[in-house]
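Give me the fold.
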Amino acid sequence: MTQREAHSTREEHHSVGTRILLLGCTTAVILINTRVLGATGQGEIAWIQLGVLLVTGISGFLAGGAVVYLQKEIPLRAMLMPGHIWLVLAAILGTLIGAASGFLPTEHIAAIALLGWLQGMIIFHSQLLLAHHQIKQHNLLQSTQGGTLLLALALAFFAFNHPSVDSFLVSLGLSLGITAVLSVWWLRRLPFGRGEMRPKEVVQRLWRYGRSAQTGALLQMLTNRANFSILARSQAGLAASGIYSIAYYGLEAMWLVPRALAPLVYTRAAAADSKQQRMHSTTNALWKALLGTLALLIPAVLIPDTWYEWAFGFDGIQPVIWSLAPAAVCGAVASIVAHHLSGIGQHRWNAWTSGLGLVTLAWLAQLWVPDHGAIGAAWAASGAAVVQTTGLMLAWWNCEKSVD
């Protein structure tokens, strides 16, 4: 094994290890929420977190993954001010859109704006760290956020005896605040670069690349999470949204390996010297992602619903997991292929296929959610995942076919 390969393997192990730690913290948080607040409380929290993700999705147009692609062209110091101004505007814009459309819970709009701004800042800083190949710091930000949330929530619910959705929001805000401070500390240690660029030019470049990359990411997030809002506003209500959220968070846990490898696929595809090199790297990552996902999916669908009821305090989870199984496999593939396409500058295909997935989800959810509740939402999610992943595979094949 060459030194480069050994370093690459260490990065993969660190990323997967961090994801395992984050998974443990996230699972513990969900267990606490469901056992204390029940399905309805969990459904309300999932709906609020959808709002936070909407804000961060909008933030990413100027303060997201495009900074990794542009780090060779734009000095770090030139990115900071436009990025941070946009974070504030995104928090305002995202919550206004969510409130006006009824997509988000209006009683928590202020909290969503604040939490979304903090989360957007962490993502912005972590992408800047990733752009400078600070993989460990990028990973540790995620585990710090998960660990501090778990600690703060346990103290709020049990030590201070305040079990409520509001206590969860305070705990989440505290964990995001601590992680944001840590991200600033690590950011200060990066080379800020020399030379000056006009802010207008920086914004134009960030927008040119960010709009393609982030349109796909935002549409993908909505495809993944819109069911939380659809169920909460349906006759099934917050309880059905809570049941679905548990199954969906289980689905995300099955993506532990692909999500750990995806940032590495992005950076390696962007830095590869040849088509052969990046295809070899991505294909290896794809097989690892599939095997890692199946290793978690198979036990999850075999566990009886009574075990889930014992763990979370309510039944109906296992049938939803079964219905999400196709989405689990397709999502593992999509994560790797989408990051490969981003790494070679083909962001537009991620946007188109995510948009197609969202349209499919909305159509199928309208057909199935009224009569089948959380299970119908899971069927819709799986249908959307199959359509999107098929599109990504075709785009990957066509883009690489045209490259010598």
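The chain has a mean pLDDT of 90.
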